[in-house]
Design goal:
Blueprint: E1 2-7, H1 16-19, H2 21-30, E2 35-39, H3 45-54, E3 60-66, H4 68-77, E4 84-90, H5 104-107, H6 110-115, E5 117-126, E6 129-131, E7 134-138, H7 139-151, H8 158-170, E8 176-182, E9 185-198, E10 202-203, E11 207-208, E12 220-226, H9 233-241, E13 255-260, E14 262-275, E15 278-298
Parallel strand pairs: 1-2, 1-3, 3-4, 4-15
Antiparallel strand pairs: 5-6, 5-15, 7-9, 7-14, 8-9, 8-14, 9-12, 10-11, 12-13, 14-15
Helix pairs in contact: 3-4, 7-8
């Protein structure tokens, strides 16, 4: 078994190559495990590096050292390669995907990482782009887009950056007219805050957007939230963050929840879409489940 670390040097507030990775490297070496390290310096390079390592054909564990975006890129490079196991050393600003599998401290333990087993999990495909956690279009994607700007401010954590971005978006125009189809059926059309496709449960530094999502069930959780009166939003945000929106009376007339394989969304003007934190403006997008796409390393308690 080979061990490869792909490090995003700008993840979080401290360069993981000088803070987190040395601890992992030392432990692996002490236990007779040789490992190599690659440092990324541009977007999507982690995908290319992971694919190159996987194409060698031998069993390999590739660890993403960074946040959710780094993990998503590494996993995208390992799609369909059964001899490749993907792990993560979470040191980004949010580290949301691993929250679906237990405490973050398990993933930061070299001992537990080395002893961990892998399991097949699903991914989300959107016109050839793969995501591992959550994708969306609408207001929350706008928040993710604005969040990047706040994350660059010193001493602003991931959750704080998300909250500041949320306030900025709420001060502008919210709600987009969307037409949504799930598994080939025209489900609804109207003005929505956002439409979300969840493989993992958390995003945005701790917001539980898809509280019932299972990363290994071969399906995605699709959640749509209609635009409410502006004065209701502050109270709804708290419920949403805690993952109570699927069962809360406050959301009864606002939320639509479906579990399925594919959601197609058409907007009537360009709207920001979010793919594990990567954002761009689109008028049409699809989110499709890819069952058992990658082998994910899950440290046990």
């Amino acid at each position: 078994m080979r061990y490869v670390f792909i490090v995003n040097p700008v993840a979080g507030k401290k360069n993981p190559y000088g803070s987190v990775y040395p601890l992992m490297q030392e432990y692996f070496h002490q236990n007779g495990m040789e490992c190599t390290c690659h440092i990324t310096n541009q977007p999507r390079q982690a995908t290319e590096l992971a694919r190159q390592q996987g194409e060698k054909g031998d069993p390999v564990r590739i660890y993403a050292v960074g946040g959710d975006g780094t993990l998503s890129e590494v996993a995208a490079g390992a799609v369909g390669l059964n001899h490749v196991e993907v792990g993560v050393i979470p040191c980004g600003s949010g580290n949301d995907f691993v929250k679906s599998f237990g405490p973050i401290k398990n993933f930061l333990s070299p001992e537990k990482q080395l002893a961990a087993k892998s399991q097949k999990i699903d991914m989300i495909e959107s016109d050839g782009q793969y995501s591992i956690n959550l994708c969306s279009i609408g207001m929350d994607a706008k928040v993710a887009y604005e969040m990047v700007k706040f994350k660059d401010i010193p001493y602003i954590s991931g959750p704080a950056a998300y909250n500041l971005a949320l306030v900025k978006v709420l001060l502008g125009k919210i709600g987009d007219r969307l037409k949504v189809e799930i598994d080939g059926e025209r489900t609804c059309e109207g003005r929505y805050l956002f439409a979300l496709a969840g493989n993992g449960r958390y995003y945005g530094g701790g917001y539980c957007g898809a509280p019932k999502a299972l990363p290994d069930d071969g399906l995605l959780d699709f959640i749509l939230v209609k635009k409410p009166p502006l004065y209701q939003i502050p109270g709804l945000v708290k419920i949403y963050k805690e993952g109570g929106h699927l069962d809360s009376p406050a959301f009864k007339t606002l939320v639509t929840f479906r579990r399925g394989r594919e959601m197609k969304v058409t907007a009537f003007k360009p709207v920001i879409a979010n793919f594990d934190g990567e954002c761009r403006a689109l008028e049409q997008v699809s989110f499709r489940a890819v069952p058992g796409a990658v082998r994910f390393i899950v440290p046990s308690p």
